[in-house]
Amino acid sequence: MIKKWLKIILILMLLYVGYVLISTTLVFKIHTPTAPDWQPAFESGENESGDRVMLVQDRFESGMARIQLIDQAEQSIEISSYAVHEGKYADLFFGALFEAADRGVQVRIILDGIVNKWNSDLRELSYAMFEHPNIEYQFYEPLNLLKPWTWNNRYHDKLLVIDNEMVMVGGRNIGDRYFGPEGAKDATNDRDVIVMNTDEERYEQSVLFDVGQYYDMVWNHDYTKAVVTDVSKRQRNKGKAREQEVKKAYEQAVEQYPQYFLEEVDWLATSFPANQVKFLHSPIERLNKEPIIWLELIHQLENASGFVYMESPYIIPTKKMLAYLEDSEVEIEKIKLMTNSFASTPNAVAFSGYYPNRHHLAVESNGLYEFQSNTESLHGKTYIFDQKISFVGSFNLDARSTFLNTEVMVLIDSEPFARHLQEEIDYAMDEKSLRVLGDARYEADPNVELAEVSDWKVRKIKALSYITRFFDYLL
């Protein structure tokens, strides 16, 4: 009798594994997104909104900018993030949020529902957030074992909205490695843009209005669920203890480094005017989505008359992505590309998807550059057209960003901002990156040292590429 039940259980387990494999792989290979109802975000033109833009490049400054924005909030804070990593910065960040909520600011937080499910520190904080009258906390697409096809559609947004007056958009998650000072080990380099509305009378033409509409849509969507709906006495006590820990971390930081917290920040002083700023986001759909952001990127490539710069931690052009280029007039030979190297990449699986395309990209483009470091990696998602139009946010050059994840980007028509952004990028390209040649070697550069990489890591990535090339539509 026991053997019979064990056999039944084994059969059910095998059936479930087959169900999961089909739902998470084959379904996405054959599913075709609906024909996109897409229009260009804008044509280059005059200022319509009064929005100004500011670049936040440095890791440490970006981390402090988030805290400073939270500290200045008077009415509301909305946060979106793909991942929160345990560590000192997460404690500081949530300590600032609790301090803001204590003074009456309404706080809303949306995080990815699978990536953050296993964070024990965050779980304990969720009890405290549930108990706080001014904090609401939700997961986008929490883990559902009966619907494995939902596992691939992850929440990749990164937004911080303050009082509906300022928004920070970028590619950084919440964690120590995104905001570490110079010399920090395993640091991740990215960038953010802060957009400020300077004309309340034209608020509905501002990016802030579009961001607010989008955030409310996601917040109220059926795919978004409350993380906690009730707490036990034990959970309440755990949450309270964790809340006190993050508040203490925040208070100690204020005491030790008052120069970063007590001085009022003049955001406008370092901002740039913009002719137009537009907010773009992926559709909130399951399976393969309409590639709205990819189509906008292609449109900007077609319109560019000269120099184009594209930076992504992963560059994995799949057949389905390239199909949208078939009738376009995109000239790859005018595009300069930058991504990670064997040495710098922290994501062997994603890099294995890029590796088979490396030779073609090096030969056909205006230059393929790879970031050289053993201690840092490239994580920015930035696109510049004709040194005038910039596209910055969370969108990677891969099928996952194109068809699967939620993504957010800001499209900025501002020559002074684009020039400033290009200067920052040129430094990383000239001082920290090497050009890949057609024979897969690097072009020698006396200013850049080739980063060492273990033979094991290279062999592992090359071996993985023979597997992942069949699943590049999921990378």
TrEMBL record:
Gene3D superfamilies reported for this sequence: Endonuclease Chain A
Keywords for this protein: Membrane, Transmembrane, Transmembrane helix
Matching CDD domains: PLDc_ymdC_like_1, PLDc_ymdC_like_2
Pfam assignment, any one: PLDc_2
Superkingdom in the source lineage: Bacteria
Transmembrane listed as a keyword: yes
Alphabetized PROSITE patterns for the sequence: PLD
Domain PLD phosphodiesterase, first and last residues per copy: 151-178, 374-401
Record-linked SMART domains: PLDc (SM00155)
Regions that span the bilayer: 7-28
GO biological process per UniProt: cardiolipin biosynthetic process
Signal peptide: none
PANTHER family to which the protein is assigned, alphabetical: CARDIOLIPIN SYNTHASE, CARDIOLIPIN SYNTHASE C
Name of the protein in question: Phospholipase
Source organism of the structure: Alkalihalobacillus alcalophilus ATCC 27647 = CGMCC 1.3604
Lineage of origin: Bacteria, Bacillati, Bacillota, Bacilli, Bacillales
